[in-house]
Specification:
mainly alpha; 0% strand; globular
Length: 272
């Protein structure tokens, strides 16, 4: 006597399986992508609190010792301060240059405008390795000693286009009739810009500035090729991990991660 299920039963099970996949595949895909993206970050944060000297499972216990060691390591503190200074200068100059460039692109018509747009945005697409080598050769050719100043100049090359694109998107949705209404009411050009244009553009400018800060603070390739004896934090982490895999590196990386995530969160808040 045969024990096989009737064909109609098999078809029903197949149809149910298909409907189940169709109903839940996006959730499964989202969970897998989140795990893929954030597992390395979660691991390094967890190991920054591990008591053992070697990062691995099982855990030897919870400790804040590596953060205390970090605070007692002058070279790590100096590298963090260098990164913050560089990021602040790059953010300021990158925001000013990027905002002015965006106003020129969106508000004015001139010959070769599309060529200008392409040339200004192009550094965004150049690989960091190529850009770093090119900057290194340029500084050597011009006989400019590498320092934090050369890091600032190098990072401005790829940060300004990001600010320009961010502010341009805000300017594209700007209603020019608001400025015309202010002028009809007697406001001067400068007053209109200060009381109407700038406040409306502020979210885009602030978002671009915070984006510039994050790019600069996390940059490794440009800083690696253009820094001198004074290292930024990413370069310090790289040079330290070449010598040893101290758990202090996990603590440094976690601190840098927290700073970057906070800046990104603020940037998204102003963008929305």
């Amino acid at each position: 006597m045969s024990t096989d299920n009737p064909p109609s039963t098999k078809e029903n099970r197949f149809s149910k399986a298909v409907r189940l996949v169709e109903r839940h595949w996006m959730r499964v895909w989202a969970v897998l992508v989140i795990l893929f993206l954030y597992t390395p970050i979660i691991v390094i944060v967890l190991f920054s609190f591990e008591k053992g000297s070697f990062s691995g499972f099982p855990w030897d216990g919870f400790t804040l010792e590596w953060y205390q060691t970090l605070l007692e390591t002058p070279s790590a503190i100096n590298a963090t301060i260098n990164s913050l200074w560089v990021a602040l200068f790059v953010t300021f100059f990158g925001t000013v240059l990027g905002t002015l460039g965006a106003i020129a692109l969106v508000r004015h018509n001139f010959r070769l405008k599309q060529t200008y747009r392409m040339l200004v945005i192009a550094p965004m697409t150049i690989p960091g390795l190529i850009l770093g080598v090119a900057l290194l050769m340029m500084f050597n050719y011009l006989e400019i000693s590498r320092s934090l100043r050369t890091v600032i100049i190098g990072q401005l090359v790829f940060v300004v286009p990001f600010v320009l694109v961010t502010v341009s998107s805000r300017l594209a949705g700007f209603d020019p009739t608001l400025e015309e209404a202010a002028r009809d009411l007697g406001a001067s050009k400068w007053t209109t810009y200060r009381r109407v244009t700038l406040p409306l553009l502020a979210p885009g400018i602030i978002s671009g500035a915070l984006f510039a800060f994050t790019l600069s603070f996390d940059d490794f390739l440009i800083a690696f090729f253009t820094s001198g004896v004074e290292n930024t934090l990413p370069v310090y982490i790289f040079s330290t991990i070449q010598r040893s895999q101290s758990p202090v590196i996990n603590a440094i990386s976690t601190v840098a991660l927290v700073i970057s995530m906070l800046v990104i969160a603020v940037s998204l808040y102003f963008r929305n």
